[in-house]
Amino acid sequence: MKPHLLALVFTALTAPALFAQQAAPLPPLISTTGSAVVRVAPDLADLSFEVEVRNADLNLARKQQAERSKKVLAALRAAGVADSELQSSQVQIAPNYTDRQRETEQVRFYIVSQTISATLHDVKKVPDVTADVVLAGATSVRDVSLRSSALRKYRDDARVLAIRAAREKAAALTAELGVKVGKPYTITEGMDYGHMVSSSNSYNNIQQVEVGAAAGDGTMPTFAPGTISISASVSVSFLLE
After folding, report:
1. Please, what are the domains in the chain?
2. What percent of the chain has a predicted confidence (pLDDT) above 70?
3. What are phi and psi of 2, to 5 degrees?
4. What span, in angstroms and rounded, lies between the C-alpha atoms of 125 and 105?
5. Nearest in space to 197 (alpha carbons), one of 187, 206, 185
6. Is residue 205's pLDDT more than 90?
7. Engineering a disulfide at 32: which of 153, 159, 169, 233 sits with its beta carbon 3.0 to 4.6 angstroms away?
8. Terminal-residue alpha carbon distance, the chain
9. What distances in angstroms separate CA 159 from CA 4, 11, 146, one per listed residue?
10. CA angle, 40 then 46 then 52, to 5°
11. Which pLDDT score, from 0 to 100, does residue 98 have?
């Protein structure tokens, strides 16, 4: 028998068995979902600053920007930030022309800028460190976000609570029907890990914080870090007994 005929015969023999296997009915199941939220206080603050200088003389602008950045880095080190948690971006240079519609006119000035980021291990220092860095030469505060250094642990805790919630829900439903919950048949984990409970924008277990300017009497506004809300969800199908 030719090879291609053998293949056809094998397919004809195995196809019914495969179809029967795929068409096998599912066992009696109950499917539920469970979710849980764990709230923790943030212990890390990620800060990002912009250091920008504008000058018609490019060499002078670069020099002034470098001096400002050096002072900003010194202020962050003085606040206790380790060099391993300091990062500065590549310096950006952009010319500003007299005619913005055509970049063929005379250059009015050059914009030399750089982003400097740091991580604080004491979130209470955020207002003071921000003020010190601005006084040292930062021209703007790009971002301040809070997070937890033990995120993995709290995610695991939230996942365990979510699984318990799914089983408790299944038990409550089946009790009304006179049946019992058996072993899990399928488990699917959700992808909605966490958010921040805060009045500011938040996502992905990170709290975005707005650091206000000093009040009229020179005092800094009250800074409340709040809590991180780390969530987990699961979908579980249990066998019925």
Report:
1. 26-43+148-241 (3.30.110.170), 44-144 (3.30.70.2970)
2. 75
3. -70, 155
4. 47
5. 206
6. no
7. 169
8. 52
9. 52, 44, 22
10. 155
11. 76
* One-letter identity of residue 102: R
Residue 208 CB-density burial (10 A; 0-12 exposed, 13-18 middle, 19+ buried): middle
Tens-digit pLDDT profile for residues 110-151: 999 999 999 999 999 999 999 999 999 999 999 889 999 999
Tokens describing residue 146: 């809070």
Give the separation between CA 122 and CA 165, rounded to whole angstroms.
35
Residue 147 to residue 44: CA distance in whole angstroms: 5
> How far is residue 195's CA from residue 183's CA, in Å, rounded to a whole number?
32
DSSP per position, 55-69: ESSHHHHHHHHHHHH
pLDDT digits (tens, 9 = 90+) for 208-232: 445 444 444 455 556 788 888 899 9
Residue-wise pLDDT for 22-64, tens only, equals: 667 889 999 999 999 999 999 999 999 999 999 999 999 999 9
Token digits of residue 82: 């380790």
Tell me, what amino acid is at 224? A
Q: Is 228 helix (H, G, I), strand (E, B) or coil?
A: strand
DSSP 3-state of 224: coil
If one counts every other C-beta atom within 10 angstroms of the C-beta of residue 218, the result is 6
Structural contact between residues 97 and 105, judged by C-beta atoms closer than 8 angstroms: yes
Residue 151 CA to residue 138 CA, distance in Å, equals: 30
In sequence order, what are the beta bridge partners of 232?
36
For residue 229 the two structure tokens come to 């809300």
